[in-house]
Amino acid sequence: xxxxxxxxxxxxxxxxxxxxxxxxxxxxRPILDFLRMTNLKQNRLGxxxxxxWARGMLGLNVEQIDKRTTEFTGFAIPHGxxxxxxxxxxxxxxxxxxxxxxxxxIDTAIDPExxxxxxxxxxxxxxxxxxIKKRIEIxxxxxxxxxxxxxxxxxxxGPSSDPLPAAANLTRIGGRDGAPEQxxxxxxxxxxxxxxxxxxxxxxxxxxxxxxxxxxxxxxxxLRFFDKSDRHRLTxxxxxxxxxxxxxxxxxxxxxxxxxxxxxxxxxxxxxxLIYANSVMTHLTVDDQFAWxxxxxxxxxxxxxxxxxxxxWHSWAILGWQEMNTxxxxxxxxxxxxxxxxxxxxxxxxxxYTDTAHTHEYIYREWGKYFEVHGIVEGFSGTQxxxxxxxxx
Length: 393
Ligand SMILES: C[S@@+](CC[C@H](N)C(=O)[O-])C[C@H]1O[C@@H](n2cnc3c(N)ncnc32)[C@H](O)[C@@H]1O
What we know:
Radius of gyration: 20 Å
Bound molecules: S-adenosylmethionine
Oligomer: single chain
């Protein structure tokens, strides 16, 4: 438990945000103890929770208004209470025409009376998110005027020559976010942040890894944003035969395999140097989680990097899971598995697809039995945190 993250958003926060630095450590006990005593339905507390746990988060929906106008709408949670409104940048250029403190769904959920804390809307001219030619970063800085944006809080868009999946394919990887703009935003943001993280860890980038596995690849949301020159290194696997069929038809230069809900996979021991999964551990039961950790440890090469997202602090705060019972359950067990199955892939045989969240402490304790836990970056993929693991050598 003493091997906390020494890179990533919190290191950067310390570098750039000065007094707003937030150290990454297991859940702040005093907050959980306070919650035990307080009625969370009092919205002020929900607000406090969000301000404390989801700092630096940018939750923007993107909509292409016309060929040259993109609108960003949603919420932005500054790093600290001081220093005024957050500032936004498109590839380093400050956005000046902007609406702040407008109504938004986060406020509506937590603070209907006060409201209007975090809402933001702005339009950017000059690109079409459905047809991007070069990388575009939407960044936020907050706090003192000298504070720089934290790259882990940014949103990204980037070039991809693969066709767009149909709405039916998109719904299978996350029902509610089924618009192509969001699909592209999540995919590019994940891959460019992962590349950035690997560089911070001392690797050159994806080229440092001979064989890369996207576990639970869905319809190629992440895989499509690798450079063409890296695609021969890639394998995508999923239990969803419909999306694997779509991938094979539309991304023929990447290897895809349909796998079953239960391990093993068809791969030999030690095959992959880099394994990543976006929003897969967030859907497994406790037993399935352990079975898959064991399988990932088998197919990972010595010294491999394994990067798996979980629902962390941001999810608890933003997704409205801050009800008393949920948090107490978290505190005591470290894992929450929803009582009902998630309907997104209800037709997949052997489906046990649920909604699951973990505490950091649980990850260090339980996942640490399978891998070395190198750190957890909050707010890495939407509200999900990224857990960085390495095989023991
Ligand atoms: C929320 S979706 C995310 C898909 C993809 N990672 C992305 O971000 O676009 C979760 C995916 O995990 C897949 N899945 C669920 N359990 C799995 C398992 N045990 N092994 C591999 N894939 C699994 C689902 O079929 C689905 O495609």
